[in-house]
Amino acid sequence: MFEDETIDIACPKCGFKNSLLVREIEQQSETHIVCQGCKVGVKVEASEFQHRLNEINEEVEAMQVEARQGKNPKPRKGDFQI
Ligand SMILES: [Zn+2]
Fold first, then answer.
1. How many whole angstroms from 54 Cα to the centroid of ligand 1?
2. How wide is the angle at C-alpha 29 spanned by C-alphas 28 and 32, nearest 5°?
3. What is the pLDDT of residues 4-53, one digit of tens each?
4. d(CA 8, CA 18)
5. Which pLDDT score is estimated for 25?
6. What's the helix, strand, coil split of the chain in %, to 5?
7. 16 CA → ligand 1 middle, Å
8. How many CB atoms are closer than 10 A to CB 35?
9. How far away, in angstroms, is 15 Cα from ligand 1 center?
10. Are 45 and 15 in contact (CB under 8 A)?
């Protein structure tokens, strides 16, 4: 689900990809992490990932629509019984 979506943040110094939870980034405009590769402090700005966050939101919305449709399935061709 959405809460478990992660984004890889490439360290500007060593290039190590640090996985961050989307919800941690979204909660504030800036997130400070420590690179797991070289231990340098990295500032993550949510605005830089707004595009990716929007994509994730759209994915979640699409899943929610599917879930709703699953509860109230519309009859499809071939489903009719005589
Ligand atoms: Zn690093």
1. 27
2. 80
3. 888 899 999 999 999 998 888 888 889 999 999 999 999 988 888 788 77
4. 5
5. 85
6. 40, 25, 35
7. 5
8. 19
9. 6
10. no
Tokens of 35: 């690179």
Q: Report the SS3 class of residue 23.
A: helix
CA of 7 to the centre of ligand 1 (A): 16
Locate 12 and state its tokens: 């500007």
| pLDDT for residue 75 | 61
Residues with CB under 5 A from ligand 1 (ion): 11, 13-14, 16, 35, 37-38
Compute the distance from residue 14 Cα to the ligand 1 centre, in Å: 4
Q: Which helix (H) or strand (E) holds 19?
A: strand 17-21
Q: What pLDDT, on the 0 to 100 scale, is given for residue 3?
A: 61
How far away, in angstroms, is 51 Cα from ligand 1 center? 24
pLDDT at residue 50 in the model: 80
Q: Which residue has the tokens 């519309």?
A: 74
